[in-house]
Amino acid sequence: MSTAEEASRRTRRRPMVRIATPLAPVTPPEASEGQPLSPAAMIFRQPQLNCHIIAILGFGKIVGAEEVKAGLEATLVRHPRFSSVQVTDASGRQKLRWVRTKVNLDDHVVYPDLGPAAVAGDPSVGDHFVENYTSALFRSQLNPSKPLWDLHILAVRTSEAACVAIFRIHHSLGDGISLISLFLACTRKISDPESRPSLPEPRRRSAFVIPDAKSRMLLIWIWTFLVYAWNTFVDVFIFFISAAFLKDTKTPIMGTDGVEYQPKRIVHRTISLDDLKAIKEAMECTINDVLVGVTSAALSRYLSRSYGGCLPENLRIRTTLLVNIRSTAGITELADMMKDSGAKWGNQLGYILLRFPIMKCENPLNYIRKGKTIADRKKKSLEAIFTYNSAMLIVKFFGIEAATALCHRILSNTTLSFSCIVGPTEEIGFCGSPLVYIAPTVYGHPQILMLACFSVNMQALTMHFQSYMNKMKVVLAVDEVVIPNPNMLLDDISESLRLIKAAAIRASRS
């Protein structure tokens, strides 16, 4: 029996502490007892894509059971998605519906017996324990008769934190933007414990505006429209042929037959957000452009070493890049998200197929230039909106199984998943303890995937970037059979960032 499974059976104490500033109960405008799951939530409930979100949280001090349970009672449990179960209705269509229930926090908050790791005091022992514990969670499942989330508190010292918590949340409850908005609503500033964190200023997405027909701007608008239309057409065409037959090149980081049966391991590393900003300023691009370039350089280094220094040309390595399609980009206040506004709660995700340039470059800045060119073109395409809406249309006309099969084929024919989420810009606290880092990732149960997988190449590598204060956390979820030393890939990311920053500084001085 795994460590996580043993821990879930242990007796836990009830809370004795109250939180002074509870989160007001929130109810979506359409929420009522028995509301059906959205099509996107239903897709994440299918066996092929039964996805869960894992968020590893590092704390500056140990958080006690009473504090955690009292804090959750006053905040998280008040949200309807975290206090509802998914129940099959009695109609002939057998739809899943959200039904509110009484939440017993003893069923959701786990304090496992840490054994030797608790008394070792060696951060490296703690790091290894957390990695093994998280990997063990992949082999267990959330109880469908209860709200689909749990929280594991590991009072063990690691190289970065005095205590680690692991949130496990089913993806049908919401996407990363929704969940981090809720989490931030449950936290407070360390500098001002009565205030909630300040969020990065949300950006309104650009929209087509028809100018005065007598001005030259009309021609610019027409040209922009044609560029968007052509890029979207090309991307949609590639999307369909990728679902049909176009696969990525077989490389050492591509999943092999049977990878869906393998457990995953999560590793993470902190890099400097200031370093990324320095490259951004020098290259006049965005942070996302820099991340694409750094990732391309790191993958090129890793693959070159795997091929004995002879990196093949024209490798097709693509990512399914998850994109927030809400009208307001970035993190939104929870209260606004629960209103009937453009920033909706739930799974508002499209995805685009982005090809990483894999090549050897004498000048490291060429990775950024190439990545920026690719990213700029993708920004002038409506591919993400198309992938989301096409899935909804397929659900409507052909059923949830057809939409799930389409998503599954796309994931099977690409190499990795990739996402970047903006976090708070100041230090925050949760249940009275300062938060040191946030490390999110996603996984699906391998034993469930085998019910629908027949000789397909599921992704062996998932990569997430999460910013917090002046730091960026790089998180990898890997199949150890395919990538036996994921820390080596983290080393390549760190070294690529160092080389690119040094080249950017030299270029700015010349």
UniProtKB/TrEMBL annotation:
TM spans (from-to): 218-246
InterPro entries: O-acyltransferase_WSD1-like, O-acyltransferase_WSD1_C, O-acyltransferase_WSD1_N
GO biological-process terms attached to the record: triglyceride biosynthetic process
Chain spans, region Disordered: 1-35
Membrane topology: Single-pass membrane protein
Known catalytic reactions: a long chain fatty alcohol + a fatty acyl-CoA = a long-chain alcohol wax ester + CoA; an acyl-CoA + a 1,2-diacyl-sn-glycerol = a triacyl-sn-glycerol + CoA
Domain O-acyltransferase WSD1 C-terminal as annotated: residue spans: 345-501
Pfam assignment, any one: WS_DGAT_cat
Pathway linked to the protein: Glycerolipid metabolism; triacylglycerol biosynthesis; Lipid metabolism
Domain O-acyltransferase WSD1-like N-terminal: 68-204
Annotated GO CC locations: endoplasmic reticulum membrane; plasma membrane
Localization: Cell membrane; Endoplasmic reticulum membrane
Superkingdom assignment: Eukaryota
Family: In the N-terminal section; belongs to the long-chain O-acyltransferase family.
Protein name: O-acyltransferase WSD1
The organism of origin for this protein: Apostasia shenzhenica
Source species taxonomy: Eukaryota, Viridiplantae, Streptophyta, Embryophyta, Tracheophyta
Gene: WSD1
